[in-house]
Design brief:
The protein is α+β, with helices and mostly antiparallel strands and 206 residues long. Helix content is 54%, strand content 18%. It is built from nine helices and four strands; from the N terminus they run H-H-H-H-H-H-H-E-E-E-E-H-H. It has a four-stranded antiparallel sheet. The longest helix has 22 residues, at 90-111. The two termini are 16 Å apart.
Length: 206
């Protein structure tokens, strides 16, 4: 059963931490918005279904559409590389979004496998003062162990999208996106694309 390790995936594919927003991201009164929760519920159900599949290829194909439709991956990578985004040409931006999106799917497909009765439990949701929604969840690994985490979401073109995920107060993505930013500045765009593509290729062979 791989979910203990795969909780890191919830962190790896995100690029923001609450401290970046500071006090401006304080929570407002609790609100009931089934649309945001529904996005989470559907994605998590698809994630659990994918865990029951035997091969990486099956999980990748199954999770491709759910990941792309539920996450704002363009926003994630754009904010993650900060000022370097502005220096990229339009074709480079599209290429980076495409390869980053494939990495996000690959991370889920590699780590979320070997289903053994795991489940997601909804705790609460709150509206932020900036019009977003925070959906708090628990991932039950077994009767004695669970992981608490939250989705921070915002409406994009009329649909709720996952912007980042926080678990145990730790965000591995902060390290990852700093790495991407550093590679772009010091080694260049082609090197970053090659390194991300190499990681995807490695996942597919494991």
């Amino acid at each position: 059963m791989q979910v203990r390790i795969s909780v890191r995936v919830l962190l790896i594919i995100t690029v923001l931490v609450h401290s970046w927003f500071g006090a401006a991201y304080a929570y407002a009164e609790s609100t009931d918005d089934p649309d945001a929760k529904q996005i989470v519920d559907v994605f998590q159900a698809q994630l659990l279904d994918a865990m029951k599949l035997k091969t990486y290829s099956e999980r990748y194909q199954t999770l491709s559409e759910p990941v792309l439709s539920s996450h704002d991956l363009t926003f994630i990578i754009r904010v993650g590389i900060r000022n370097e985004w502005k220096k990229l040409s339009k074709p480079q931006k599209q290429q980076l979004v495409d390869v980053f999106s494939r990495l996000a799917i690959a991370e889920y497909a590699k780590h979320f496998k070997d289903f053994s009765g795991e489940s997601f439990i909804f705790d609460s949701q709150e509206e932020t003062r900036q019009g977003g929604i925070v959906v708090r969840m628990r991932l039950l690994l077994n009767e004695d162990e669970e992981v608490k985490f939250s989705y921070s979401m915002k409406k994009r073109r009329g649909a709720w999208k996952i912007l980042f995920i926080t678990a145990k107060g730790v965000n591995q993505s902060l390290v990852r996106t700093k790495e991407y930013d550093s590679i772009l500045r010091n080694e260049g765009f082609d090197t970053l694309i090659a390194k991300i593509s190499g990681k995807i290729e490695k996942y597919s062979k494991q």
